[in-house]
What does this fold into?
Amino acid sequence: MIVAGILSPIENALAWLLRHLHDSVGLPWGWSIVALTIIVRIALVPIMVRQIHSMQRMQAHMPEMKAIQQKYKGDRQRLNEELMKFYKENEINPAASCLPILFQFPIFIALYFVLRNFTKHVTATPHELGWLIVPNITHKITSHWSGAVLLVVYVVSQVASGYFASTSAQRSQRILLMVLPVFFVPIITRFPVGLLMYWMTTNLWTVGQGIITRRLTPKPAPPPKRSSRTPPKDRGDGGGDGAAQTPQQPQPSAPAKAGPPRRVKRKKKRARR
It folds into this structure.
């Protein structure tokens, strides 16, 4: 198989690392896969840091990007040109969120070949391949009832990791990332249990990383609140020297002095003779 031939160096490296974790460190085969996953994620930390910084810059410039999209919504080609120019000026990589998956995909496929040809790489009895409630990590997920439990954990962890990994994406994209794991279940059931353990550990790492990132990321300062005593801003409509114009309030009139009522004299009419 062409893919197996290309990934054979990665397959041999993963098999050697699993043997070392089992023989030298003394971990069971199941925990060796968990430890291997953690080692892979630690190696990908520099890429994850670049992804986080790019996502933070994208969130900071989101209003400007929406303004560009609104301005050139009728011209698709011009819109793409302006967005690419904007990305370059502000050092934003829109594909940064895909980099960790891009680097993990070959490892995922290579680990599949390791577990499928596990007896070629290591010497282990079926009893040694058990892990917690899983009787054998090289068997398919549907071969035991424990596979259903692991599938539920996988779906929950995948939805949570998709939520934290798509904080800067649009609402439709975030919903898609959170719904896709359910549709992948029929495909995943054909994989060995050990491969599902690798992906579950990866998802849990992503969730923990997202929680830590949210706590460490400084929140933007809220806009100042306006009160009734806040003077209005200068409108710049040519009102003299540009100073803020305060509305003039009418001065209250002085109260009239109280005094005796005015008497009106009436003229007496003379009687006619």
